[in-house]
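Progress narrative, Year 2. Work on Cupin domain-containing protein from Vibrio fortis advanced from sequence curation to structure prediction during this period.
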Amino acid sequence: MYQLNFSMAEFVEQYWHKQPTIIKGGFKDFVDPISPEELAGLSMEKEVDSRFVSNQDNKWSAEHGPFSEDKFGQLPQSHWQLIVQAANHWHQGAAQLAESFKQLPNWLFDDLMICYSAEHGGVGPHIDQYDVFIVQGHGKRQWKVGAKDEGQYKESIQASALRQIEGFDPIIDQVLEPGDILYIPPGFPHEGTTLEPSMSYSIGYRSPKEQELISNFADFVLAHDMGDTHLHDPEFKTQSNFGQIRQSDLASLTKMLHSALEQPNTVSDFMGCLLSQSRHQLDIVAPEPLWKAEEVSNHLAAQGEIYKVSGLKALYHETETNVAYINGEVIKVEEGDSALLTSLCNESIISPEQTFSPSAIALITDLVNKGYWFIEE
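Result:
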């Protein structure tokens, strides 16, 4: 297991969304959770989001996986980088590394991205709109970070896929060694240059955009057949200006728009469903044959554990612990099972030490049969 070598609470108070920083020795005696060969193997899988970025002779190119074995049999010595998104969904060691950041909320967590870089490999100077902790694995990389973007940087698109900027003056310029962590808030330009073949691990946190909230809320309203009403005004009066929208009518229409947002259950369910959906594919496989409730109960009684699929988001609202949102679904239980529900959201393993009611066993069985949790046989 991995353990942070600093206080996350103190870090958040001083740096989160405020300024970039380097935490030397953020992980003590850091050991890579995955080898370059394993990472290459992941990039060959069609379910896994991967990229290969190179800058040979100052010409940028970017390819998306899956890749074949031939790709890795004829690689140049330098100026390339292999990137695998959401590696925590597919590799247990990567998932354990991501677990060490659990003091930050799961609804914000996006994924763990892993990069293997040959000497001089990188993706060029760029700006991201999310928080990221970059953990240095084996090897060394030089990182430069500039002042926050206030419109002073000029964007440049390379290879039709790489959004870069043309350059920046660094406020941070340091070499990261194994176990060091670079934190970069949204909007700060940065560039990593590989000094020797190395692995790096980017733990990203991303909130939804305002336009994503609006668009997805509209979809939610339509999917749940809400708001199917028109404006009817018994006090309606004639008007002398044919093309005019009266302020009273504008106010009435605006009130209709606001009314959906003023329904607390509607908004909380929408947010729970939206935030519990992963942006990356999950390793969800329904078991064959399906489990019976009696079999699940016997497994737990025999001290067997049940595991949550890595990367699956299970969330609940602070004031409503008998409702959970799992991979975009609403799960409601009786008050007596609320402790189980919060445990499902907060923990990655269903422990046999807990006491399970028949309704709890039924819920666990349903989640296992959906492929959200699994039993190792």
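Residues 277 and 327 are 5 Å apart (CA to CA). The longest strand covers residues 109-117.
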